[in-house]
Specification:
By secondary structure, this protein is mainly alpha-helical. Helices cover 46% and strands 5% of the residues.
Amino acid sequence: MRLAGEGSIPLPSTDFDPASNHHPSWALIGSNLQERDMGIFSNIMSKIFGHASKTAPTTSAVKPVPAPAPTPTPSAAPISPAPPRPQVVDVTAVLDELAADSPQKLDWRHSIVDLMKLVGLESSLSERKALADELGYTGDKGDSATMNIWLHRQVIRKLSENGGKVPAELMD
């Protein structure tokens, strides 16, 4: 990496490796590049669902009693285990906890900007427009108020569709 001048921002080198599709200076960008590649909604979901798994209790007060082993019968076909159910995350509890810990007063229940800030994502107009594209918004992106309301509803709805427990009043 070379420097543009005293006190300047470092300029990236030209060491692009086409085989790995990687450039050494991308390390300067860090997780922002990775988050953008994942998709903004995926990032929102992973921040909420990831936070829930960090705060979920790891031990239980009551130990589950193992079920007796079934006795196999010669004519019975082998039973394959059911696929694991997706993790259900109480979205409201996670976001309320994050809001309580935040130094800012963020109204995530009504504002997509505040929801994005709360989970630590960029909430600029350009990011919200990119989220709108990702979620299939067909309205006028110049009308940011209408777009923001639509985005908030869609994000809450999609969180619910992906295993998030969301109160009915937030789904309207």
